[in-house]
Every structure is written in C-alpha cells, then in structure tokens.
Design a protein that fits this description.
It contains twelve helices and no strands. Helix 8 packs antiparallel against helix 9. 74% of the residues lie in helices and 0% in strands. The longest helix has 50 residues.
Length: 305
Amino acid sequence: MIVRPQQHWFRRLFVWHGSVLPKILFRLSLNFVFACIAVVCYLWHEMLDVNLTLAPFSLLGVAIAIFLGFRNNASYARFTEARLLWGNLLITERSLLREVKSLMPDPAEQARYFTSLLIAFTYCLKHQLRKTDMRIDVDRLLAPSERNSVLNSHSPCNTLLLKMGMWLGEQRRLGRISDISFHSIDSNLNHLSSILGGCERISNTPIPFAYSLIVHRTVYLFCALLPFALVSDLHYLTPLVSVFISYTFISLDSLAEELEDPFGMAPNDLPLNAISATIEINLREMIEDDEKPSPMKPDHHCLLS
C-alpha cells in the first residue's frame, strides 16, 4: 500500500512511485508508435478514401468508460471488504486474548500459549493469501510438537482454529472457565472462522474472466484505432492527444487488475506484513511480552508492504 503524505497538487502531478504509469509505460509506447504510423500514413490512406471519424469512437468511449467504472467499483469493493476483514481480525484477536487473560485462574501460562496460536493464525493467513512460504513464521511461533500438524495441513489456518477450540474445550472440562465464558470465547472463535472464510472467498473467486476479458480487449482495440480517427483533425498533435486519452483508459484497466486481488504484493494492495506485525505487537503487549517486533514503516518510496 502506498502511504504518501499530503502534497501540493502540482508536485502530485509528477509522482512516479505508487502510480500505475511504470506498469503501463510500454503499452503507452505502443500507442505512441501507432499514432506515429497514423501520421506518416495519413496522406496515403486519404488517397484511398479510408477515413475514420470520431463519431463511433465517441459512442464507444462512453460505453468503455461505463464498463470500466463498473469493473473498478467491483474491484474496489473487494479491496474494501478485504480491509474490513483484516480490521476485524485485529479486533477479534484482541477480544479473545482479553477474555482468556481475564477469565483464566492462572492467566500467564495459558495466555502465552493461546497468544502464540493467535499470532500464528495471523501469519499463516497472510502466507496462505499471498501463496508464500509460512515455515519461518510457524517455526518461530509454535512448539515443535505442533509445527508438523500445521505445516502438513491442507488448511493451516483451520488447523490452528481447531487447536484453539480444543484448548478451549479442555479448559471447560477442567472447570477453569464457566459455560457462559466458554460460549463468549467460542463466539469469537467462530468470528475468526468467518474472517478466514471471507478472505478465502475473495482470494479464490476472481472477477468473472469473460467480463474482464471483454473490457480488456475493447480498451486496447479502442486505443489502437483511436490515432487513425484523430489524425485527420489533429495531424502532428495526434500522438500527444492519443497517448493522453489512452493513458486514462489503460490506467483504469490496470488499476482494476491490481485491486482485484487485494492480498497481493502490488503497490496498491493491502499491507499484510504491516498489519500482521501490528497484530503481533498488540497481542504481545497484552501479555507483557518484550519480544515484539518493531512497527513497520513505509520505505523511501512510501510503500508499506
């Protein structure tokens, strides 16, 4: 995620890091080449009486803008839902640990074990969503007797939820917590399961491919043919105007692709590393553990990963 301080409007016009311009620069270069070809071939296709007008492009441009708006709204809705889920993850884990620490007769040892499961759940969820190796964090957070069962599981996060549920059931059987307390903690565990399912739904269900494909094809066909419609009126200004118009459409298409998977590593995706570190800091402070990570800060490009 780009975390950039407020800037003067003029300086913001020239911002490079965090924009989609580096990603689409080659595509805009192709559009510039097409525009130069249109200028060079203008006299030739005028003699053959081949002349595109702006009328169909005006109608098509409005239609593309509407479809791009719908697609960007759908992608941003996924991004917003993902951020709400991770915000609720922080709230739920803090509530769980607070209940465990306040209700257990010997909270220190039990809370430390439960905290390790909660933090491991956070990092495993991050790695699962980003499809990265979770072994380092699992080895750091869990006891050797529990690592293999988590790492060899098809769904490590679900395995950790099961371990938390079994631990809670054991405390109830031993009489350390009342039935009312059990149901309260179990309700928050169910909330964690809902957060896991919501993240998996977003990660495993992309925007329908056919819908994305038709918008993608239409945008690039429109941008490729646009210079040939502009050249009769703009002549040598055609490359400049064509690239500017294409930048608008292609950048919106590219941004929708980024936001479609909010858990990725693109500059505008969610900073799951920073959120996971924040959750760990919060939980370790609640059990008065000094071995907590430092809060993550944006790098010199204002990127928070």
